[in-house]
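Final paragraph of the annual report: two paired records, presented back to back.
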Amino acid sequence: MDKNLNKNDDLIIAGRSFQSRLLIGTGKYNNFEETRAAIDSSESNIVTMAIRRINLGQSPDEPSLLEFLPPKEFTYLPNTAGCFSSDEAVRTLRLARELLDGHNLVKLEVLGDPDTLFPNVVETINAAKILVKDGFDVMVYTSDDPIIAKQLEDIGCCAIMPLASLIGSGMGILNPWNLEIIIDKSNVPVIVDAGVGTASDASIAMELGCDGVLMNTAIALADNPILMASAMKKAIESGREAFLAGRMNKKLYSASPSSPVEGLIK
């Protein structure tokens, strides 16, 4: 049923095992304390951070995110948010590897437009080729185009991360059919990245067969980020269980009573 299913049903990425299928971004919170509280509430194992926007030690006189999210407790996923060319993205992740003592699990995203933040798939493919050759384990943000997704897998990316809708839009999954094609054709984890707005969006992604969901804005900009993080954790778990259980077939105009009709008292 699931190409990545194992005895414990852990999420396996580049040979690493994670209990949680919810990946959390660290931007847009009011402060690092709120960031930590939300991530604790989500019980996420993987936290992603924008190298160009967050201090990971490159500014020694400022608070560092690493102080609040120590590497002994979390797996870092440095990302290239804000990069608009393959050159920028490659330089950013090489810097991240230096700052994080050789860490090579990264999230690649190359944007094509500052207004929509839609991915530039040509530049993304170019960067992916360089980074994979350079020894990175590349989780890659992309459009929901099944052909591009397969090309990125063939390059050697360890996870495909198609958008559900535009980054920060909260519009949810706009094209479930494309996601299903990507899931069906992929031999690496498929993780929805961008567009999730609330818990039902996350649950739907998991019910479709996605291996996980990455989100930031939906939690950070909620009225109560800590409570929303808890809701997202439960949505991921319930959606995963529903996928594994296998839903009943839809039957238009074919009612089926829940209780047997034989032996009714007349």
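The closing record of the year follows.
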Amino acid sequence: MGSVGSVSKPTEGLLVGLVQFPVPVVNSRADIDKNVESIVKTVHATKAGYPGMELIVIPEYSTQGLNTAKWTTDEFLCDIPGPETNAFAEACRKTNMYGVFSIMERNHDFPGKSPYNTAIIINNKGDIVLHYHKLNPWVPVEPWYPGNYGMPVCDGPGGSKLAVCICHDGMFPEIAREAAYKGANVLIRISGYSTQVNDQWVLTNQSNAWHNLMYTISVNLAGYDGVFYYFGEGQICNFDGTTLQQGHRNPWEIVTGELYPKMADQARKDWALENNIYDLGHRGFVAVAGGESECPYTFIKDFAAGKYRLPWENEVKIKDGTFYGYPAVPSENFPRPKTPATAGR
């Protein structure tokens, strides 16, 4: 299950590649176009080096960068579909690979409101098979509109069921649990974190895998953009929470490994001890026939009722984006649009 010799597709599984894309410095639309060209070239070059690869993952912010002075301006935003996603789709079709890509997407659901931080999965035929809006933007740094597509899941190669989350999403165990609950056996995490949360990145990738008996494959931007250093460290975690592959801090490093989704599926069905995702909803099944299924967790009940509130809520100091120079947002309620078919199931 390692990268040594991983150039061919396993018989019952898939070969994945995580690209530690160099953090792009973007100051104009022309820079975005150059990044798209670079990503497309990377897809083709990686396939040439790893002929058996079936899934390639490109990090968050690889298309449009992290220029906080411009990243919500109309010039910097993209549409889906659009010329950028069309170029990615053609690369996937020509290389016969699935690909995961990052887009800062114009908000057509709520015109005039903040954009979405978006991930898409494109299949080997060039079709967008999953469309995800980041559920948990990294506040107070990021201005993105909170995701409204939930946690979609799609079929992938080699018996995989794929879900994707973006950066800070992975710090919430509920994200990974939701993906697993909807059938994902591989959770992809793309990110643009700087080094201050490097240790937490490694820890949560492992814990998300272990808690849900699924693979996690995760990759971060790499390099220095003149302000922050981005740590790269593509990571592949087994469904038992152990790390199978760990990248370094090198820009352009490609972390590869074989996944065997069938084994994760089998563990979920066969394991008696530590079948965490099953046991959560069947508490104490040795003492209670079928286990207790009533939810004992106050925070889940309150969250579902729209009443989530911490005991120290009134003492929280930073509750909007003014700390990072964003204007305060007026209290308004917006209807949530329905999830489109392209989001996945």
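The mean pLDDT is 94. This concludes the annual technical report; the extension proposal builds directly on these records.
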